[in-house]
């Protein structure tokens, strides 16, 4: 497998030059979706180079970034050693997590049935937990907090509570989402749980104390050294 050392053909590298073009290039921010990928990379020990996509200067809407992700969201990656040794551009955090797991043969169960169950929980986070927690954060902490009508906020509070109850029930008797095995499902879910009770300051609002299994696994998750590192990337 040949080593790719010239990434100049990819427009994104004009704005974010690769100092180490042989490494996987990560374009991200330390948000719940962004840190999924940095945490996975840290857990896997893959060499990578992180680039900050600054939303305050609308980096995500520049032609260079849109050349990699036309959906103008983080995270996105450029892997110079993709399938067949060819460069691969990829966006959507869930797709990137599955790709990294398959690339390394780690963070997904080997058993086919359990593998799909892990992916099912990853999709559950992508389609439910993340969007609902994000909307709750808007209505509780950001501009939505000034709305006199609290029905939109309460809608997302109720759905967030329901999702936390689903998660709490599933974790009873399990150390991680898939039991003893730590997988991409955990890496997808728990940055969002951390954000809900931390950055969004919504723990009391959703009655987080009523979900002890979720709190237990969250504590184990944030104590992992790779998670500690990944949560701060890109700086």
Percent helix range: 40-55%
Order of helices and strands: HEHEHEEHHHHHHH
First CA to last CA: what distance? 32 Å
Largest sheet: 4 strands, mixed
Question: What is the strand content?
Answer: 5-15%
Shape field: globular
| Number of E-type strands | 4
Mean pLDDT: 96
Task: State Rg.
Answer: 18 Å
User: Which residue ranges are poorly predicted, with pLDDT under 50 across at least 5 consecutive positions?
Assistant: none
Q: How many helix segments?
A: 10
The order of strands across the largest sheet is: 2-1-3-4
Determine the structural class based on helices, strands and strand pairing.
alpha+beta
Description:
The chain is α+β, with helices and mostly antiparallel strands and 235 residues long. The protein has 10 helices and 4 strands, in the order H-E-H-E-H-E-E-H-H-H-H-H-H-H. It has helices spanning 12-15, 32-44, 63-66, 93-104, 112-141, 151-171, 184-197, 203-206, 212-222, 225-230, and strands at residues 24-28, 48-52, 76-79, 88-91. It has a 4-stranded mixed β-sheet with strand order 2-1-3-4, covered by helices on one side. Helix 5 packs antiparallel against helix 6 (151-171). The longest helix has 30 residues, at 112-141. It is globular. The relative contact order is 0.15.
